[in-house]
Amino acid sequence: MGKDEKKGTLVLDNFNSTANLASNPGFQSTLSLGSKEVINEKAYNPFEHRNVEHPNSTIGSLVHLLKSSLGSGILAMPAAFKNAGLAFGAIGTMVVGFICTHCVYMLVKTSQEVCVDAKKPSMGFAETCGAAFEFGPKRLRPWANFARTFTDYALTCTYLAALCVYIVFIAENFKEVLDEYMPNYKLSVETYCALTLVPLVLICQIRNLKWLVPFSALANILLVVCFAITMYYIFSDLPNPGDKEMVASPTQWPLFMSTVIFAMEGIGVVMPVENEMAKPQQFLGCPGVLNVAMTIVISLYGIVGFFGFIKYGDEVRGSVTLNLPQDEVLAQSAKILMALAILFTYSLQFYVPMEMIWRQIHTKIAVRYHNITQITIRTAAVVGSVALAAAFPDLELFISLCGAIFLSTLGLLTPAIVDTVHNWDRGLGFCYWKLWKNIFIGFISLVALFAGSYVSISNMVEKFGTVKVLEASNATVALLNGTAV
């Protein structure tokens, strides 16, 4: 890994939701691409040129991938099953999990191969997308910079959207507990969203990643304890599954698909994990780090979703912790631990889009104003995310909308396009099977994008009203435009 790229590397050492999709904070693009027609006397081996100061072992890489995929998103799986039914949900989780795993495989495989063409030891997500076009068909090479920039901004938008989901997580879990102890002063979820503003603004002023490590470590511990308590309640006195819906209405399937994609998709984190491996050739293949990690992830997500839906049925909420008894101390502790874990995770996830934003604007601002500008932008971004979360604080709909818009595009459509472009001149297989396979993945991503967004927004309009949804949409556009200037 090059010197500049090493400085921009962020290893996600936490159990966050897979809304957390990238770990390269700056989305640095140091790629300098040469001509495709250069003739090499010896094939370039990127693995031999990687100079990682503290490489991860194969087991360590597996742990990192698991910790990045198993988080708060798993608690949304019972709600996903509510929109699919027991039978369709179980089968659908395996299918979506397989597609997500294959998309990760395509991205990593493409990255390793374009590293040979570009003579680079490793590349990030955005660099890989740009290099695939640069070394692809000649007509598409001018699109290389657009592909790289699009991926940068898509990752940034994904993080900003995920931060809004985090705020709703925090607000709803605190509300569940405090309403029990203050029955005469029950505040709205919107009020609890607003109350998170001060602590989030303060914690997001931390700019050194080193000082965020303790918060991440504490969040890991809290999430593990919360997950254990939640599993205890789910498997206690399970009802008969026979009275649960096996296959839900097809109109609800887009919500299932977008929720599962949101919870499971971790396309952005795999490149830093693979780039930091001591033996990167063991990331792919069978069994391989990727296959082992995703098998565990898909199994756990399916189990939690299946039994969580059996336990709570149609009453299950966006986070299954919200279904735990309000009047029991153990259940209350799980909700508080969940809220605190997400609160401590927020700053680490905020680090990623802030690095990209700052990289874009810092050269346009005088050095003496850097500090005040950082404070202003960080505060404005947090205020914007809190305002957007308070606009429609429905956790289930918010998760499905984010999964439909951002993660279906970044996690499914982008790898399919990149793989097709990369293999266009190299061969698309017998009867162009790679092309047809990628077209199918692209179709699935577009269904999740348009159908998932339509159903989510329709339900939001039904619940909150047209005016409020339009105001929230305008706030979203203003937030993204303002932070990307």
TrEMBL record:
Keyword Membrane attributed: yes
Domain Amino acid transporter transmembrane per the UniProt entry, residue ranges: 56-457
Location of the protein in the cell: Membrane
Lineage per the UniProt record: Eukaryota, Metazoa, Ecdysozoa, Arthropoda, Hexapoda
Chief place of localization: membrane
Source organism of the structure: Loxostege sticticalis (Beet webworm moth)
Residue intervals passing through the bilayer: 86-108, 150-171, 183-204, 211-235, 255-273, 285-310, 330-354, 398-418, 439-457
GO cellular component terms attached to this protein's record: membrane
Claim: Transmembrane is one of the keywords in the record: yes
Lipid bilayer topology: Multi-pass membrane protein
Protein name, per record: Amino acid transporter transmembrane domain-containing protein
Keywords attached to this entry: Membrane, Transmembrane, Transmembrane helix
